[in-house]
Amino acid sequence: MEKLKRTHMCGELTLDDINKEVVLMGWVQKRRDLGGLVFIELRDRTGLIQIVFNEQISKEAFDKVQSVRTEYVLAVKGKVVKRSDETINLKLKTGKIEVYVETLKILSKSETPPFMVEEDNNVSEAVRLKFRYIDLRRPSMQKTFMTRYKITKLVREYLDKNGFIDIETPLLIRSTPEGARDYLVPSRVQPGKFYALPQSPQIFKQLLMLSGFDRYYQITKCLRDEDLRADRQPEFTQIDMEMSFIDVDDILSLNEKMIAKLFKEILDVDVSLPFKRMTYQEAMDRFGSDKPDMRFDMQLKDLTDIVSNCSFKVFNDAILNKGSVRAINVKGAAAIPRRQIDELIEFVKTYKAKGMVWIQVMEEGIKSPVAKFLTDEEMSLILKRMEADKGDLILMIADKNNSVVYDSLGHLRLEMGRRFNLIDKNKYEFLWVLDFPLLEYSEEEKRYVAMHHPFTSPKDEDLELLDSNPGSVRAKAYDMVINGVEIGGGSIRIHDTELQKKMFKILGFSDEAIQERFGFLVDAFKYGAPPHGGIAYGLDRLTMLMTGTENIRDVIAFPKTQNAVCLMTDAPSLVSEGQLEELHIKIEK
Amino acid sequence: MEKLKRTHMCGELTLDDINKEVVLMGWVQKRRDLGGLVFIELRDRTGLIQIVFNEQISKEAFDKVQSVRTEYVLAVKGKVVKRSDETINLKLKTGKIEVYVETLKILSKSETPPFMVEEDNNVSEAVRLKFRYIDLRRPSMQKTFMTRYKITKLVREYLDKNGFIDIETPLLIRSTPEGARDYLVPSRVQPGKFYALPQSPQIFKQLLMLSGFDRYYQITKCLRDEDLRADRQPEFTQIDMEMSFIDVDDILSLNEKMIAKLFKEILDVDVSLPFKRMTYQEAMDRFGSDKPDMRFDMQLKDLTDIVSNCSFKVFNDAILNKGSVRAINVKGAAAIPRRQIDELIEFVKTYKAKGMVWIQVMEEGIKSPVAKFLTDEEMSLILKRMEADKGDLILMIADKNNSVVYDSLGHLRLEMGRRFNLIDKNKYEFLWVLDFPLLEYSEEEKRYVAMHHPFTSPKDEDLELLDSNPGSVRAKAYDMVINGVEIGGGSIRIHDTELQKKMFKILGFSDEAIQERFGFLVDAFKYGAPPHGGIAYGLDRLTMLMTGTENIRDVIAFPKTQNAVCLMTDAPSLVSEGQLEELHIKIEK
After folding, report:
1. Does ipTM exceed 0.90?
2. Do residues A522 and A529 lie in contact, with contact meaning Cβ atoms separated by under 8 Å?
3. Nearest to A45 among B45, B195, B213 (CB)
4. Which among A480, B109, B119, B513 is least surrounded, fewest beta carbons within 10 Å?
5. What residue ranges define each of the domains in chain A, with the CATH number in brackets?
6. Among all residues of chain A, which has the CA nearest to that of B151?
7. How do residues A534-563 score in pLDDT, each as one tens digit?
8. Of A289, A292, A316, nearest in space to A304 by CA
9. Any binding-site annotation on B339?
10. What share of chain A is helix, strand, coil (3-state, %, to 5)?
């Protein structure tokens, strides 16, 4: 039989190809018999085209096509013809043409697939994950992975032009139990010892700067053995970079241009540069979040000064204990039913708020459980600060712990934004959040922990606070936030051995612990370390944002479930006794 | 103090920059005091430049530089000036200029490093690996990783232009104990179960073809828990690709063009296309190897027919047992001392040859221990076939096992090529080896094993031999060989479920074993599989070849020793009891 060699892709044929002899290969999307003809929509990665089997053109092909069903893989040779006006299908990009088949070769048969290759096929995600190779045939999935690929391609081009080189760092590394839980890999050659899989290439990229590579990047897998939430996977991909001899502004400027380029070339979105910049403190004060969604307003206001002398005990307690009273104004929401207010009270409890106070600014006057505790002047100052008009709803949180106030109001703001459709899905708001605190105090561990990681540099002007008031020291750390999602984050690193040692001490490490865990790193900094810093992006999250999905499994070709299981291959699995013996380990249930 | 912002890289300044005010940053390569001046060679990734401190120009900088030592990190501002003719240093690319320093900032101090950043520093590899971040500062190391990066960059560009998209496959996969030993990762969520780290993305890339992605590539880490040889590492990097709707010639043609592009753009080597092609059988017959080094001749010749009736028992035994007698001619080596012949006899024993026969074609006549067993006619036929002239040395191997004959003569050929300097180090010889056997019989396991892997397609014309004579079936498999190194290999895959099942059965898998190990894959092929095939390159080996090193650790930024240990971070290491408990495993020494 004649050997067929593909000449065109299905979705790329146009009116310009009319009368051409073409060879196409692809999957049968659907088959239709009509008036003694067989019509098939043939699918490849570029799209669909209708191919027509007609006994008059080729009896052999016509006979052969009788057995063809959905998802068969075909090679066809035929001529491109223009469709008559009445048969034009505007739903198809190629809907003005079709191919009259002269030769048909069935490359593969298909059993009836467990579900059709269609968008909105109403199939449970578990089934789609089990038959991932079928689900990935959907045009939207193909498009997603094309977008993901384009992101990495543009990033690579951009970083190359800016002098970065891609250097691979190891997967089998030393376990340093600080941060999330490591995945461990038992060593066969060194009984009882383990490698860890990297949570990030952090240490190695810093060592590459010490090695003089000047500008490094890598798009690489990182792994964390954590309990998974909806937007987490055990393995995820970072766009990771590090540069020497630079400061914060150099990194922000280089990176915002990169992201603007991605949005322009992939989504045709014009991004105005520079991005907005905001300190961590400002972000918390105005939006109750270090990753504010700037697509809508509804900012937090501090009412502490106004209510500091009122007779409402909850407010008083919060304020006396160094806490605060803050609020948002949900415009036009005054008429909210009591049932919904109760829901919101439950909602804020998730964020540890003990309660929520509301003020309904009704046509007929103020309605609020705290009205009786406030003087007219206090109430009127509140309304003024909240810029409240008739019809507005003010939601207030008081707590002695400011982070509870921020967190619950920040989430309440987002919730109200969603409920009242205040978020324009077609809008992108880009933001740098700067000057994160260097340390946070962990009540659990009764010590300071690094907010970013222990290699983050304090701001020069806060250096002297390291001893007197470590909690107030700000870091040279920055996050890139798009539409309320933290897309990337990084910092300028410490490049001074003494400062690094001091940092480890503040984090509560003994000299021995420093030597044991980070000895090689502390040593490395002794031999000429350049000032350096970097940033890492979550490629999965960035792809989610750019493809408009909220399911991380949609942007990973072969993802795992929330139990870290691959439903397709059934991994993890039992292994043989022999394998375990070689690794000198035993299962202990 | 004035904030300095780098304006130029050290190695990139030229005569065109004379009189420019520049800011440079880098490491102190060396410092020299002469005539009241201080000269420093400053180093960054691009190279070295001499900077000069003169009290007349800046007393402050001059005073400050007194404390500066090797490997200090400096920022300097100064003016580029032309060196006087007598001070030109032709060893430096920037040797015609120098920079008169006006401002000096010491960015980092350095203790005396454990070794100097110099080529040929005579430091043991163990020390260099421990202080890898210093060793990587050597210009040759910087160049190696630049070359490695250029390879990946050019590959990505080329594959992109040819319609390939980069799709990531998982690191945590299911263990399928066929092939090399898996690295295992205990699951915390599923007690007693394990993930494996991938030995290759083979199964996933095939599933991507079934998913309709058409052309996939990935530059990705693969891991094998094997005892390491000099050219192996526990983790290595593959350039991996797969394409649909193609046959062998499409893949060879696309790939040889890619490799030619790499050699042209990186080494300025013109590669003539197409590459030479040779079947596996021809490669074995002519070079005794499936990866022949074609940079020199010295081909194997089959002498079986000539000596089949001679009176030498060793030859007779080999031939009667379906073996053969083959030889190489080492031109001009007849005068080799007996001691060296004895060495060669020991050498071939490594490859299981029981002995070696030699014929010295001396000025004064033939000298050979087997001369007495051969008639004059036989000897003259041998000399004729071997194209032997006076002064030549013929080395013969006989064995009942042909693979021993090939293997020992093939290695002997390489050894003689090295000893007699027949290999031109500046020459590159490119070759495709085709038509590998599909199966090899494993005496150990008493069954056929896949020579490539179980998904490799047999050649169409050999399909009927699968039942009658599986050992003789040739595969649609190919290796790319450069200078005797297997740089890449691949195959057209089986895309027919029934054939795949048959293949598993020939490999001795029971129905249950097939279902248990490869069930999801066999299922996947039921729903419309396109014909497809691919290839994978060892990036480490390719980089070694292109940078001219024979040490794989030279092309990996943070490599492991032959005990799979990282000497810098001391991985693998002990982990805490708590970590093991969470993973439900126990160490059993």
Report:
1. yes
2. no
3. B213
4. B119
5. 10-108 (2.40.50.140), 125-268+532-589 (3.30.930.10), 296-419 (3.30.1360.30)
6. A166
7. 999 999 999 999 999 999 999 999 999 999
8. A316
9. no
10. 35, 25, 40
